[in-house]
Amino acid sequence: MSQETRRALRSFLDLEAGVDDDDDEVGGGRSDDEEFDDFIDNDNPAELGEAKILERSVNSGVRNLALREPTEHPDDAFVQVRMPPTSRDFPLWRVACRLGIEEEAVFSLLQLAAPWHELRSAFTRGSIRGWVYLETTMNEHINRLLKLTPGIVSRRTGIIREQIDFEDWTKMLTMHDIEANVDVGRWVRVRKGTYKGDVGYVLASESWGVRLLLVPRLSPPNLASSSLKRKRSTVAPEPA
């Protein structure tokens, strides 16, 4: 070790330990070399070959890489991307609901559901309107509750419901944002559905779509039948 290195190291130790130069000299008559020999590990020779230094560097890098690699957790063996359904899983159903009040129907179901209804979850999808999704066994109690829920579409044969296949369960949890590019106060034309081709005025923009004021569709009069009636009415009756 050079003289400058010893001097710099001793200054650093003095600053950290708060020891004066006088205290360093009082220590049993030990020389600077002996003092630094106790502090620095000099078991290995200072002049190492280039091959030895390269070998140690490679081994150190391998050890660091092994430490950074994630270790396998004991519970990882039980984690699967798609686990098959079990007897404890409830089926997933979708139930028809009136447009615009799907959230109200879900809120009412979650508020009134009891343990005997066997309703584990209820949700709605913003990208698909007119349906609410239920994780339930669809027993007699939940059917009775659905008939009393506002917005649920019910017929003489019962509520309109469809069971979701297990392969599509994860798709039901995927939400798609609907970007409404229609401004309030504009005139638009309906492209799909019952009112396809009708002209409407945008009243409001909602999270699920827009509210339109449609122009009434007037059926054109039947000109052939009206002209025939006129001709018949103009014929004078024969004298008696």
Automatic annotation (TrEMBL):
<feature type="compositionally biased region" description="Acidic residues">
    <location>
        <begin position="17"/>
        <end position="41"/>
    </location>
</feature>
<dbReference type="GO" id="GO:0006368">
    <property type="term" value="P:transcription elongation by RNA polymerase II"/>
</dbReference>
<dbReference type="InterPro" id="IPR039659">
    <property type="entry name" value="SPT5"/>
</dbReference>
<dbReference type="GO" id="GO:0032784">
    <property type="term" value="P:regulation of DNA-templated transcription elongation"/>
</dbReference>
<dbReference type="GO" id="GO:0032044">
    <property type="term" value="C:DSIF complex"/>
</dbReference>
<dbReference type="GO" id="GO:0006357">
    <property type="term" value="P:regulation of transcription by RNA polymerase II"/>
</dbReference>
<dbReference type="InterPro" id="IPR036735">
    <property type="entry name" value="NGN_dom_sf"/>
</dbReference>
<feature type="region of interest" description="Disordered">
    <location>
        <begin position="16"/>
        <end position="42"/>
    </location>
</feature>
<dbReference type="InterPro" id="IPR005100">
    <property type="entry name" value="NGN-domain"/>
</dbReference>
<protein>
    <submittedName>
        <fullName>Unplaced genomic scaffold K443scaffold_10, whole genome shotgun sequence</fullName>
    </submittedName>
</protein>
<dbReference type="GO" id="GO:0003729">
    <property type="term" value="F:mRNA binding"/>
</dbReference>
<feature type="domain" description="NGN">
    <location>
        <begin position="92"/>
        <end position="173"/>
    </location>
</feature>
<dbReference type="Pfam" id="PF03439">
    <property type="entry name" value="Spt5-NGN"/>
</dbReference>
